[in-house]
Amino acid sequence: MLYRSGQLVRTAARTVSFVPRRTLTSTAVRYALNDGETKKSTGLFSSLKSMFTGGDSQKPKVAHRPSAPKKEEEEETISGKLEDRDLSRLQVGLGPDPKAQLRWERKMAVREIRKRGRVPAKVQIKRTERESLSKSHWIKTSLKKLGPLARQIAGKNIDEAILQMRFSNKKAAKDVLEHLEHAKNVAIVRAGMGLGAVNSEPSKPITVTLKTGERQKIANPTDIYIQQAWVNRGPYGYEMDHRARGQINRMRPPTTSLSVLLKEEKTRIREWEDREAKAQRERRSQLWTQLPDRKISAQNQYYSW
């Protein structure tokens, strides 16, 4: 009898059973390694072929890729209300320099109470009067064509200017009409212009004199009018002009935009009152009153000088 270790055992009548000596090459781990080396690894195509044909090769194994565990929706939600946050911790980010904040607030307070708390005239006008500035998109026209339309609508009521552009024969009048309608809507929605006071009594018409000397009758002080209208030069385009004999000229079509500054009629009334007050002060300064007729007193035969 021959063992795997190569030892030959003789069959004899012995009372003690024979135990073979274990060597390094005869361990169970070594047998497992040797068995694994004898088997050839098959590829993907051979495994698929043997699977359909019924061979003994193994089925293809899909490599396992570790992935992070899925997060539950409850873990993403923040527990607690926003009102319960600790504001002392947020103060580090909101106000990193409290002393600088106090200095800035003091500076703004001092600026407001200058001149014994009197508000400058320009600031008072900004607080009491409404205005709205609107700029149009770039219109494919030149300054020479859009400029006359801007001068035509300047100083007119917004509704009258829209009516003028509606019946104008100019090609650019259509774009000006669309921009005026858009500017009117923006002034009403954003600045609250043209709405009038709530539960206000109808005011009496006022006749004012403009800078040009023209008289104008104002029925409602909250009506919208165009105080200024100007044009802006935009970027030039690029076009090709195909001529005879294969000649091509490069063209630079201009673009222009229209800007309008809308205000209420109360601004026009205030400007007229300021002009009238200034003219009255100038007339009063030109008045001359001669010395009163009095009797000569303290006569003396000697000179007093």
From TrEMBL:
<dbReference type="InterPro" id="IPR036394">
    <property type="entry name" value="Ribosomal_uL22_sf"/>
</dbReference>
<dbReference type="InterPro" id="IPR047867">
    <property type="entry name" value="Ribosomal_uL22_bac/org-type"/>
</dbReference>
<keyword id="KW-0687">Ribonucleoprotein</keyword>
<dbReference type="Pfam" id="PF00237">
    <property type="entry name" value="Ribosomal_L22"/>
</dbReference>
<dbReference type="GO" id="GO:0006412">
    <property type="term" value="P:translation"/>
</dbReference>
<dbReference type="InterPro" id="IPR001063">
    <property type="entry name" value="Ribosomal_uL22"/>
</dbReference>
<keyword id="KW-0689">Ribosomal protein</keyword>
<feature type="region of interest" description="Disordered">
    <location>
        <begin position="51"/>
        <end position="82"/>
    </location>
</feature>
<dbReference type="GO" id="GO:0015934">
    <property type="term" value="C:large ribosomal subunit"/>
</dbReference>
<dbReference type="GO" id="GO:0003735">
    <property type="term" value="F:structural constituent of ribosome"/>
</dbReference>
<comment type="similarity">
    <text>Belongs to the universal ribosomal protein uL22 family.</text>
</comment>
<protein>
    <submittedName>
        <fullName>Ribosomal protein L22bacterial/chloroplast-type</fullName>
    </submittedName>
</protein>
